[in-house]
Design a protein that fits this description.
With about 500 residues, the protein is an alpha/beta fold. The chain has three domains: about 100 residues, Udp-n-acetylmuramoylalanyl-d-glutamate--2,6- Diaminopimelate Ligase, Chain: A, domain 1, CATH 3.40.1390.10; about 230 residues, Mur-like, catalytic domain (UDP-N-acetylmuramoyl-L-alanine:D-glutamate ligase); about 160 residues, Protein-Tyrosine Phosphatase, Chain A. It has 16 helices and 25 strands. An eleven-stranded mixed β-sheet has the order 9-8-7-10-6-11-12-13-14-15-16, with helices on both faces. The chain has a seven-stranded mixed β-sheet with strand order 17-18-23-19-20-22-21, with helices on both faces. A five-stranded mixed β-sheet has the order 1-5-4-3-2.
Length: about 500
């Protein structure tokens, strides 16, 4: 694609062509690829210099040119004998340029975006299953991976960088995908990763404390989430027909529904919503109830566990309805999703324990999953949990209080400590735990059984899981929270192989 055609997608401050041996401008370069990492540049590529948190792409322009870049895009004045395109914001421009380069794939597919602190992954996979039952070819981009056409690919972040996202969407389109379901994180909204990705539907699940290490406070976090609906959804070629799906079971959802400038479909547990559920029953083997929609009323059953998953089901049903899926396909799609990796994922065993692994790593998510299992059993609940290092420190005592209050035994351990001292993270969690669970159990004596609500501290996550299993009795519930589907643990700057599901199975074998 010619550079001049490519940059028509963005507002240009200045475009300077390189000079030939006679001092005249050279021909419009042909762009063969686009890059934002100089080490990836190939001959004929466009290098977009993006300022980052640790490094500035402008410092790597010479490296990109040495590797054969035909042009560079910058947001600072640059003097090089090369094709130089200057824009106000290279990060904002990258998604639009990449969209143009890959043929604007989101225009040619139905795209459903999902944002919210919790529930994005579960909601996306329910929608995917509904769409499959409706006969559509689907692709999913999210926290666990991105997948389509029976192939799964590793996804390092929930929402890929805009260039990577457009390339993935292009691959999906070329493979015949008609409907894409993607998670849109607050980082992705704020950093322009979804720019140039035009959505037909955007779903809001909920908002609770998370990512304050990035956003600073809840007000700015909420303003960022709202931008997906108030700005992005209404923009672009689909703006006139785009639909917002909003969970009104929380105050932010009710606020968002009141200010929407595009058509909104609300979901909730009350009859003043477009899609609502009644007669909900939650058991350890699933959820059932009656769902009412503008297209009809039907009963639903799901193997997923917990009332919070009933909200995810409602959001998924509303999103499917917004793109024209029939009630019959919605009903069968809900019933057909057996499990979501790492989301209250049951670990079958012959030791009589009810064991779940869950990704809950925010206060609201941890409270939801503990409340879900607490409502379904009279037996003891043992919760293994930690807090991530180099992340929001304010939530540590809050999560400690939740686990101490709702679990009979809170096993305080490491999550992904990263570059922080694991014991320092635990020390910041313990004041919350001790507010409600004053008895500290000795790890060496835990097999003697529990005598009242309490906690124990074990920074080694593998040993903590084994202690939790050792402390349990038949009929008890064990919840291992925080890492869910992850198959690694980050300690220092090393990423080590670690899977809570495998560790639980090994611990159960030792009983």
């Amino acid at each position: 694609m010619k550079l001049t055609h490519l940059i028509e997608a963005v507002s240009i401050l200045n475009y300077r062509r390189p000079l030939d041996a006679f001092g005249g401008p050279m021909a419009d370069p042909e762009i063969e690829s686009i890059h934002y990492r100089s080490q990836d540049v190939r001959p004929g590529g466009l290098f977009i210099a993006v300022p980052g948190f640790k490094a500035d792409g402008h410092d790597f322009i010479d490296d990109a040119l040495a590797r054969g870049a035909s042009a560079v895009m910058v947001q600072k004045p640059v003097n090089r004998n090369a094709a130089v395109v200057e824009v106000a914001d290279t990060r904002a421009a990258m998604g639009l340029v990449a969209g143009r380069f890959f043929g604007d794939p989101s225009r040619r597919m139905t795209v459903i975006g999902i944002t919210g602190t919790n529930g994005k992954t579960t909601t996306s996979l329910i929608i995917e299953n509904i769409l499959k039952h409706a006969g559509f070819s689907t692709g999913v981009i999210g926290t666990i991976d991105y997948h389509y056409g029976g192939k799964h690919f590793r996804n390092p972040v929930t929402t890929p960088e805009s260039l990577d996202l457009q390339q993935i969407l292009g691959g999906m389109r070329d493979a015949g995908v008609t409907h894409v379901v993607m998670e849109a994180s607050s980082h992705a909204i704020d950093l322009g990763r979804i720019d140039g990705c035009w959505m037909d539907v955007a779903v809001f699940t909920n908002l609770s404390q998370d990512h304050l290490d990035y956003h600073g406070d809840m007000a700015r976090y909420w303003e960022c989430k709202k931008r997906l609906f108030t700005r992005h959804l209404a923009a672009g070629p689909k703006g006139g027909r785009a639909v917002a799906v909003i969970n009104r079971n929380n105050s932010q959802g009710r606020e968002l529904a009141d200010i929407m400038g595009v058509r909104a479909v609300t979901a909730g547990f009350s009859a003043d919503n477009a899609v609502w559920a009644s007669g909900i029953e939650c058991r350890l083997d699933g959820i059932s109830g009656e769902m009412s929609t503008p297209d009809g009323r039907f009963s639903f059953q799901s193997p997923l566990v917990g009332r919070h998953n009933a909200e995810n089901i409602l959001c998924a049903a509303a999103a499917a309805m917004a793109v024209g899926v029939s009630p019959a396909a919605i009903q069968s799609g809900i019933a057909g999703l057996r499990t979501v990796p790492g989301r209250l994922e049951s670990i079958p065993n012959d030791r009589g324990r009810f064991v779940f692994v869950d990704y809950a790593h925010t206060p609201d998510a941890l409270e939801n999953v503990l409340a879900a299992v607490k409502a379904l059993t009279k037996q003891k609940i043992i919760c293994v949990f930690g807090c991530g290092g180099d992340r929001d420190r304010k939530k540590r005592p809050i999560m400690g209080e939740i686990a101490g209050r709702l679990a009979d035994l809170a096993v305080v351990t490491s999550d992904n400590p990263r570059t922080e001292d694991p014991m320092e993270i635990i020390r910041e969690m313990l004041p919350g735990v001790k507010q409600v669970a004053t008895r500290e159990y000795d790890p060496e004596a835990i097999s003697m059984g529990l005598n009242g609500r309490g906690f124990l501290v074990e920074p080694d996550r593998r040993r903590a899981i084994r202690l939790a299993v050792k402390a349990s009795q038949p009929g008890d519930v064990i919840l291992v929270a925080g890492k869910g589907h992850e198959t690694y643990q980050i300690i220092g700057r090393e990423t080590l192989k670690f899977d809570d599901r495998i560790e639980v199975r090994e611990a159960l074998k030792r009983l």
